[in-house]
Amino acid sequence: MSSSVSDDLEARFASCLEGARVKRICRPDSWSLGVAFGRGKTLGFCFKPGSLAAAVTSWEWPRGDPPSILNHRLKGRRLSGVEFLPGEPIVRFRFASEGRDALIYEGLGRSANLLLLDADGTVVWSARTLSGSFRRGRPGETYSLPPAREGAAAPASSWLGSEQALREDLVRRCRASREKTLRIRLKALEKRARAVEGDREEGIRWIEEESLAQALLATGDLARRGESSREVTDYRKDPPQRVPVPLNPAYTVRENAERMFRRCKRGKARLRRIGTVLEGIRKEQKELSKKIEELGSVESPEDLCLSPAPPASGDRENAPTVPRGVVRVQFPDGYVGYGGKSARGNDAVTFRIGRGSDFWFHADDYPGSHLIVRNPARLERLPAHVETEAALHAARNSKAPPGNRVAVLAAQCKNIRPVPGSPGRVMVARGRTIFVELPR
Q1: Full-prediction pTM beyond 0.70?
Q2: 291-307, pLDDT tens digit by residue?
Q3: Is 331 inside a domain boundary?
Q4: Virtual torsion, Cα 254, 255, 260, 265, nearest 10 deg
Q5: Residue 126 sits in a domain of what CATH number?
Q6: In terms of Cα–Cα distance, which of 393, 320, 326, 324 is closest to 363?
Q7: Total domain count for the chain?
């Protein structure tokens, strides 16, 4: 990228955004991210291989499901500067904050990445997890520029600053994702309709048993038990015929007949409901088919309202509702935790809320709260200050006496197993001990 092109693009980015404050982070899908500012502008990125784009856009971005760590680090910050790094087409966006965070956009050939760095140059979040001698982007690593490649650097003018290219690519992927979601729903409705039709046939068979149950009552010896079948006259046939009726040997003949009458009653109630259910399914199928046909004419990404796929390195958001007996805890740097307030709450925290890579804490040798801390970046270790805060929280919410030095067990949820028949008790396969001082 020539110096004149670089200076021109740098000036365009800076004039549009420098000094503007971040309003929100948009993540419409797993390959795009938008940083929306207060001036009606959004700094948009696409890091899908072969579809690189970074530009300042003036249209409304779909909200999506952004990583919480980006919201915590960037929301409310002002963009303080734009810098084009020499050599490869790499752009650094600096934000005015206590930590002086920076967004790095790498556009190397066909393979792009977006990284958030702290003041020390440590990767806090990355859109893609790339590793090796050429690229370093795992959270927790110290960022270093990729080594210069042989030959000329890839021209950035084809993807940097092109708002139209970014919009067209986002619309195309949003439309494809939206259509896939609708077709999955349509397929589920077809499966449900087949199941309902099966229920209808079963209900019809139950209703047909009514005449056989009446004929069974007319055979006599109704208190007899242990029969597996009995012949009755089926008057539904012309002429009437003798047919065997299967019976449950555990019940008397009268009880078998009563069970057939009850099934008949349930079958009639089922047929009354099934008509309405099928009508609702057919109506929803028509609406979905119509939406799929209309997708081709939608040109606005915000109108597609797609549900984003979880990113590869992604940050999985917390459950929208917290179970009873569980409390939500906020830790430094945007880390979120959940603590149990009872044995059932502890089980819910460890085995329902906790995911394999999340971190688990519990005071050793003392009954107390189970605590998990979300690990969206799938780090091998939490930052030291966050880990200490989590261990202190687990110790404070235990029976450990104040003023003592408490050993706290720490492990990942994938290494925790329940003790059968003992709510709130667990077995730790691989863990370590953290010592914290409880204040008096």
Answers
A1: no
A2: 888 887 777 776 665 44
A3: yes
A4: 110
A5: 2.30.310.10
A6: 393
A7: 3
